[in-house]
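Q:
Just now I want nothing more than another pair of eyes on a protein record. Here is the record:
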Amino acid sequence: MTTNKPGFEIPDQMRDFADKSVDQARKAFDDFMGATHKAVTNVEDSANAMQAGAADVNKKALTFAEEQVNSAFEFAQELVKAGTVEDMMKLQQDYMRKQMETLGEQAREVSNTATKTVQDAAKGFSQT
């Protein structure tokens, strides 16, 4: 004797609801992953901007150091050729004035470069 047990049937409304729920979950996940990819890209872009800016500042600093050393050697050569103490004092005064002007220009240049670097890096974060 065989008994046929009727199978459990899932109502169509339940299937539709489950199907919509899966679709909504898939869409939510896809949206989340899209936002995550965008955020990662923005962070990478910001990091690249900061790295490029830091490299630029380093190059400027190296160039400035080289200019300062060359200026010091030129000053030393002029100082050796000075005939009197007054000439030496005048050379020292001119050298110090020129060094202060140069230092001011270099500080502005480094400041401008650093500001631009921060602004470029911030652009990546503001695009999220």
